[in-house]
Write a structure and sequence with these properties.
homodimer; alpha/beta; Lyase, Ornithine Decarboxylase, Chain A, domain 1; TIM Barrel; 2 domains; 12 helices; 22% strand
Chain lengths: 377, 377
């Protein structure tokens, strides 16, 4: 692991660039607001840790009321379990037999859940769990509109019956996440997409219960849509993850009517290393922030970020040529970037630099490792 | 660091997915072909290690004739120097004083060069080097068309004089890289862009030599354009890096007339974890490969990769609906992805799984760490 780009007690000016920086005050407010939202509606909250990959942030979320966390990969679950997180849902399919053996072994040490969407996956999981002598919660994943993983609602019953037929597999309910709905800008259109998802969930649940099986829990929802799943009367658990940091792409959504007001809590600190007459070049590019959801925004500056490649960003003033050089940052000046997409941005860094007291006059209160960085297997 | 996704001696089938895999035979041919190209033209070759971030690959390149490597960041230089690479050019500006102190300290241990494009940068570098009692080669960076870092050609003379005025700074020549030209598809248009770049270089060199200063070396060029810089009579050193792996984006270029034939040598192994009737979902998304230069290609399969988010890719058959399910890969089947852009893809992984004997029946011959992964500072 690289040395961290700052030390506890450092002033902002002492943080090396580029660095992944958390505004702790904003982070804590985001965590509290989402916890209150779920608590007030009697819903379970299981935030997605694929966003932060951090046991420390998972602990803060659990302390605020979350029942545990979701992850996407077996190795993410292992990394967080190794740091004491004891209730983890791998909200994804695992099909390779050697990987399922690891899943089954992990289920001996923590409360573990997993998603399935194929008979082969169920049979292999059952064999792995039997060999390990462990038990695991199993959610049947239903495709509610994204067209990625999951069975069609009508097929959920048959797969649930297969799950229930195996000792060691506890039929826990339905995994129903509509990733495609999260960044639809208009709130009414997101709501319409989730209305269709809820219809699919209801059909899948009926397919299960019509077989005389229980469907204890429907889990899903993301930071763009969770108020709609929460109001559905069908979902019992929310998996939103990005709310903890609020990336630029989520902030660009028209907010839903009853959504808490989240704040940007994750930034990339960057520094001007070259300065032209009409542009400034900073030391942060594709290797410092992910651009799959668009380029980062420059925080509280009238500056546009243009693609400068892997290790550079190009800053230009917004809105015309007048007075350009007056407002461009100077050589060695720092700026804060709001990543387009937090999850893969976090995955580029080994450490969070955690600042208390704001981005201007704050102090580094902690350095947290990105525990599950690079855990793609 | 994560456990590696394979062990030496493993068969292909035993490699965990997703994994970053090198076809060693192809890698070695690429290294030999570029070395021969430079040698036959009497040019120095200093491949860019920002592509591979690996001391082992740097050693192979140096053994084949390279004079050393380029890097983009101080921490990359430190990581490679720690593994024994002794001749490194930071082909980029460094402006922060604490970072320049590290540059100066590193210059005590290895032959180090750096680029400059501002008087402030030169003055700070000179102070840092003086404080450390070290010396460093300094290239004046000239903007030859990319509009990123570098001074205008006419300004190169003044900056070179400033460099030459400082003890500890050896004026080494010009850094002149045209990143914007590398992916122009038509070979004649790339050639035209480099012709303009060469004009800028010639003007910058004249601006330096007219002051009675020597301009010992012009260094630059990338994997898309190096045959043109090589033929210019002006460039003395080539910095191409991506040739070693050949990403999809470079393969999409129309090759230059005299370019060696490079091969894809870097792949991401992915596995089908979910299977619909008209699509298959693999376990590799934005956290396994970078998409800043477009989505990956599926190697030797008539399959199109569609964006499935951070941890998933969606495969569909190319060319219509007929016989779709016949050629889609099955659940648990593996496919090889050719990354759109190798450099930031490598930066996501901790290890290279190095295969000898081809991707079908090969064997894992080595596991190499990505030594400078995450070195953005």
């Amino acid at each position: 692991m690289r040395p961290a780009p700052a030390r506890v007690g450092d002033a902002i000016a002492a943080i090396e660039s580029p660095a992944l920086v958390i505004d702790l005050d904003a982070l804590e407010r985001n965590i509290a607001r989402m916890a209150a939202f779920a608590r007030e509606r009697g819903l379970r909250l299981r935030p997605h840790a694929k966003t932060h990959k951090s046991a420390q942030i998972a602990r803060l979320q659990i302390a605020a009321g979350a029942v545990g966390v979701c992850v996407q990969k077996t190795s993410e679950a292992e990394a967080l379990a190794a740091q004491g997180i004891a209730d983890i849902f791998i909200s994804n399919e695992v099909i390779a037999e050697d990987r399922l053996a690891r899943v089954a072994a992990l289920a001996q040490r923590v409360r573990l859940a997993i998603a399935v969407d194929s008979p082969l996956g169920v049979d292999r999981l059952a064999r792995a769990v039997q060999a390990a002598g462990s038990t695991i919660d199993v959610f049947v994943e239903v495709d509610v509109g994204q067209g990625r993983c999951g069975v069609a609602p009508a097929a959920a019953g048959g797969l649930a019956r297969l799950v229930a037929s195996h000792a060691g597999l506890r039929l826990a309910g339905l995994q129903a996440y509509h990733g495609g709905a999260q960044h639809i800008r208009a709130s009414t259109e997101r709501e319409a997409a989730i209305r269709l998802a809820v219809r699919g969930v209801s059909a899948a649940r009926a397919a299960i219960t019509s077989l005389g099986l229980a469907c204890p829990l429907v889990t899903g929802a993301g930071s763009g849509s969770f108020p709609f799943e929460a109001a559905s009367g069908v979902y019992g658990e929310l998996q939103a993850g990005s709310y903890v940091f609020l990336d630029r792409d989520y902030a660009d959504n028209e907010p839903a009517a009853h959504a808490p007001a989240f704040e940007h809590a994750l930034f990339v600190l960057a520094r001007v290393i070259s300065r032209g007459t009409a542009h400034a070049v900073i030391d942060a590019g594709h290797k410092s922030h992910a651009i799959d959801s668009g380029l980062p925004a420059v925080w509280q500056r009238e500056l546009a970020f243009a693609n400068g490649g892997d290790e550079h960003g190009i800053l230009q003033t917004r809105g015309g040529l007048g007075g350009v050089s007056a407002v461009l940052p100077a050589l060695d000046e720092t700026v804060w970037l709001v990543p387009g997409h937090c999850d893969p941005t976090v995955n580029l860094h080994d450490h969070y630099v955690c600042v208390r007291g704001g981005l201007e006059r704050g102090v580094v209160e902690a350095i947290w490792p990105v525990d599950a960085r690079g855990c793609v297997t």
